[in-house]
Amino acid sequence: MRNLVEWMEALEIPNCKVFPCLEKLSVEWCSQLKTAPSHFSALRELDIISVDSMAVANIYRNLTNITSIRIAYISNLTFLTEGLLKKNKNLTSLRIEHCPELMYIAPDVSGYCTSLRLLYIENCRKLSYLLDGLHTLVSLEELRINWCPNLECIPSILGLTSLRELAIWSCEKLSYLPSGLQSCTSLATLWICDCPNRISLPEDLLRELRSLSRLRRIFCKDDSPLTIPPNATLNLTQKESWDMNIEEKIEAAVRKTEGRTVLFKASEYAKASKRYQKQKWIGGII
Question: Is 113:93 a contact under the CB 8 Å cutoff?
Fold first, then answer.
């Protein structure tokens, strides 16, 4: 329904609810749609792709029971209203993809979104500010930020003991990892790839890595080396790498970190990339 312009609000009838049983709503590729209903009292899952931001805002205006939201290809979306996150305390998954005008998500999430387990942001080229209160997302298990070239920093994640995966791809202005990473005792996977600025591992993280036995992947592309501070040591008791040659090079470099800085470079990135594409991970971590 690419030519749909108006989806009118249903007439309210006394003692009757509009869409009383609708739990999942998907609105896709209606780029001309300007208006949409706002009464979805039972809605749990919302998937919106290529719709005008005015219609998007109207759809989620009165939501209170949503658990999963995916917003993608909304060309004129600049931010999410604070009420969307504040009113939906059962939200577990938030995905925002290909929104070129998005500048920030919400000013502050402190005290709410405590059920959020997945935060996924991809290809939001103007995104410069993530959100305050990231460290209060106590249930967060996966944080993935891909292709956000204007993002300069990620707020502290101190205390996110449920975080299992942190993935950062192609964030050109990002030069350091979020503070508090050493407290993420459940961290199993760390991806840092294609970030041209030199990404340094915080020294406090390196001091704690011995206890992070489930850290499985540390990877950097040739043009985004990972800097290890002097005297740092790594002792990962469990490792899993999609390119063991790269992993072996990293381990060899770590053994030589006696009083000097080491740059990790994946010299066999081209070969690894082919394998990566075969596994359909390229273009985002699925």
Answer: no
